[in-house]
Specification:
Blueprint (H helix, E strand, L loop, with lengths): L1 H19 L5 E6 L3 H12 L4 E4 L7 H9 L4 E2 L3 H8 L3 H10 L2 H10 L4 E3 L4 E4 L4 H14 L4 E2 L6 E4 L4 E4 L4 E9 L14 H8 L4 E7 L3 E2 L3 H5 L4 E11 L4 E11 L3 E3 L1 H16 L8 E7 L2 E6 L2 E2 L7 E6 L17 E3 L13 H15 L4
Parallel strand pairs: 1-2, 1-9, 2-6, 9-19
Antiparallel strand pairs: 3-5, 4-5, 7-8, 8-9, 10-18, 11-14, 11-17, 12-13, 12-15, 13-14, 15-16
Helix pairs in contact: 2-7, 2-11, 3-7, 4-5, 5-11
Bound molecules: flavin-adenine dinucleotide (FAD).
């Protein structure tokens, strides 16, 4: 009896303590519970950094559930140097993030969360049961076990910097946080929650936003050969980007799919991404100056000025928060101390094959491990 009494006394004291804490800011508010946000919260929990996730949709990881047709190709088991070379544009910015959170580290992280994994011959990694939901559930279970609060159905509407920290405003309440991690994603597949809010908040806080372009998307064409083959997939194919004089600027061996609208598949996606970046780097050049050559099923299709489908349908968004205003060693804003970024909200993107989720995870880890605590 006396023991029970004492236990109750302790409980009351600890409740008192919690009450006393109610007017202190949370150490970290993670805005967006997608790939970067979930990973960030897991890293914060591992380091015992108090954090909260605020998610716009009714559940975490809506986009992750859709990755690789619901199978989630979450990384590629290759050395960080190879990974960075494959990423190409933007690789310098993510170098530290990827070296500190390499594909191997991501793989062992999922294993330690109890997820069985499957490695393809080219290094692409998937959950062994081929279900993206297994990855999202693993995050959910881990965060619940660690007691990380998750606020869903709550789009953040604004962020106001204070003398100490920030006020995060939602529709019905506000929250005070010492640090903010913007992990709200790009602008593709907006139905999955990524609608560009993070870029809007960043712009309001003085950041420059690079224009959005589609990354990893199909090319429209009504070439008779493509239309005749619509619905067919050609696994060992090749696609190239040529200059007007026929010089090969980029080539990629992989899958090509013929669709009613034109061409898609990994080889086409990577060529399309290459051309978007190439046009950005060579201001003044026009898409019409380049040719997409697709070689499949013993045939050749050449498309002058390949027209990409819209950014809303793209796998990834090119553009977003300008990298020269973010510290690549910490992912912290160079304009607003305490404001951090991770994932597609930044102007970073990679090719197909698990690179984009890896970029989200690695930038999230670097942001959390860099917090001033
Ligand atoms: C169809 C498809 C297939 C893909 N397949 C692969 C693949 O196999 N491998 C790979 O590596 N990549 C793949 N990708 C890309 C990958 O999914 C993204 O690059 C990755 O999810 C980006 O992570 P993120 O955390 O930055 O953004 P998201 O995962 O998009 O997460 C952002 C989150 O922020 C939330 N949010 C937005 N605004 C607010 C707000 N105001 N308040 C609160 N929350 C907010 C959103 O609801 C969302 O949950 C695929 C993408 C698509 C569309």
């Amino acid at each position: 009896m006396a023991r029970e009494f004492k236990a109750r006394g302790n409980q009351e004291r600890s409740l008192e303590k919690r009450k006393a804490l109610k007017h202190t800011p949370v150490k970290l508010a993670i805005i967006g519970g997608g790939a970067a946000g979930m990973y960030a919260a897991a890293v914060a929990a591992e380091r015992k950094i108090p954090c909260v996730i605020i998610e716009r949709k009714a559940r975490l990881g809506s986009k992750v559930l859709m990755t690789a047709n619901g199978r989630c190709n979450f990384t590629k088991d290759i050395p960080p140097e190879q990974f960075l070379e494959d990423v190409g544009p933007g690789a310098k910015f993510v170098e530290k993030a990827i070296k500190e959170c390499s594909p191997r580290k991501i793989i062992s992280g999922f294993r330690s969360m109890g997820v069985s994994l499957k490695r393809m011959s080219d290094g692409r990694m998937f959950p062994a049961d081929g279900k993206a939901a297994t990855i999202v559930h693993a995050f959910g279970d881990y965060l619940r076990e660690k007691g990380v609060p998750i606020i869903v159905n709550s789009p953040v509407e604004g962020i106001q910097p204070q003398k100490t920290g920030f006020i995060v405003a939602m529709q019905n309440f506000t929250l005070w946080a010492e640090n903010i991690l913007l992990a709200t994603g790009g602008v593709s597949y907006p139905k999955l929650g990524s609608v560009g809010d993070g870029q809007r908040f960043a712009a309001q806080l003085g950041h420059s936003i690079l224009p959005y372009r589609p990354g990893l998307i199909g090319i429209e064409t009504q070439e008779a050969l493509v239309i005749r083959r619509a619905g067919q997939r050609f696994e060992r194919s090749e696609a190239r980007i040529l200059s007007r004089d026929g010089a090969i600027l980029y080539e990629y061996r992989g899958e090509i799919d013929c669709e009613k609208f034109g061409l898609s598949g990994g080889a086409i996606y990577n060529c399309q991404r290459f051309l978007e970046h190439y046009l950005r780097q060579n201001q003044g050049s026009k898409v019409g100056d380049y040719i997409l050559e697709a070689l499949f099923d013993g045939e050749r299709v050449a498309i002058q000025g390949p027209k990409a489908r819209s950014v809303k349908e793209a796998i990834v968004t090119i553009g977003g928060v300008a990298l020269d205003e973010v510290n690549p060693s910490t992912m912290e804003s160079l304009k607003v101390p305490g404001l951090y970024f991770a994932g597609e909200v930044l102007d970073i993107d990679g090719p197909t094959g698990g690179y984009n989720l890896t970029l989200a995870f690695a930038t999230a880890r670097l942001a959390v491990t860099s917090l001033h605590i």
